[in-house]
Amino acid sequence: MKVRLDENVSWRVARTLQAFLSDTSGLEISYVRDVHPPGTSDPTWITGFANAGGHAVVSGDANILQHWVDLVAYTESGLIAYFPSPAWSRMKAAGRAAFIMRWWPTLVEHMKMAERGTSWRMPMTWTPSITGLEQLRDPRIQTRAQQRARGIRPLATISQFRPESESE
Predict the structure, then answer these.
(1) Is 26 within the bounds of a domain?
(2) Is residue 163 a part of any domain in this protein?
(3) Contacts 24+ apart (CB under 8 A), 110-115
(4) H/E element, 23
(5) Which of 13, 26, 65, 85 sits most deeply, having the most CB atoms within 10 A of its CB?
(6) How far apart, in whole angstroms, are the C-alpha atoms of residue 132 and residue 70?
(7) Is residue 120 in some structural domain?
(8) Which pTM does this prediction carry?
């Protein structure tokens, strides 16, 4: 499963996750600036990441609901997207990093079962819970028929993270 962090999350968090999860089979973490130059529009890199087999994006854009063009790009790409609550904007860098690291295991578990093309809000709580994630909805595509008409792949994929056990 390929997961990308956007430029609203510190590159240091991406490097920490890459190092921390380096021996995890089936999970690939990347940072948007490693692949695209600064100033690349979200719809451009989102589409490229989705076409390259991307699965999910963790963003630091707490104001995504004010950036409809970007939210539409996430939805139409078929990627699963996660966004912090607006309170994220008032946090300092260390708090933001701690928040993402604290939520990481919950996000990965949620990514395994979430439908493609869905976006989720992480509540500003220190006790992560899959049931605490709030789905963000694009009002233009409320039904599966509307999603299919726009080419959105709303099916979840099953990801295996544990290496196959070796025969003894």
Answers:
(1) yes
(2) no
(3) 110/80, 110/82, 111/1, 111/3, 111/55, 111/56, 111/80, 111/159, 112/1, 112/156, 112/158, 112/159, 112/161, 113/156, 114/56, 114/80, 114/156, 115/80, 115/154, 115/155, 115/156
(4) none
(5) 13
(6) 23
(7) yes
(8) 0.78
Which amino acid would we find at residue 82?
Answer: Y
The half-sphere exposure of 12 on its side-chain side, counting CA atoms within 13 A, is 6
Q: How far apart are CA 2 and CA 122, in angstroms?
A: 20
> Is residue 154 very low, low, confident or very high in pLDDT (cuts 50, 70, 90)?
very low
Quote the domain boundaries for residue 79: 2-149
Instruction: Please give the Cα distance from 16 to 21 (Å, whole number).
Output: 8
Specify the amino acid at residue 95: G
Pinpoint the alpha helices (H) of the chain: 11-20, 32-35, 42-51, 68-77, 93-113, 144-149
Which is higher by pLDDT, 72 or 7?
Answer: 7
CATH of the domain at 14: 3.40.50
**Total structural domains in the chain?**
1
Q: Please tell me the distance from the alpha carbon of residue 47 to that of residue 73, in angstroms, as a whole number.
A: 7
Of the listed ranges 28-32, 112-116, 163-167, the least confidently predicted one is 163-167
Q: Which residue bears the tokens 């510190």?
A: 10
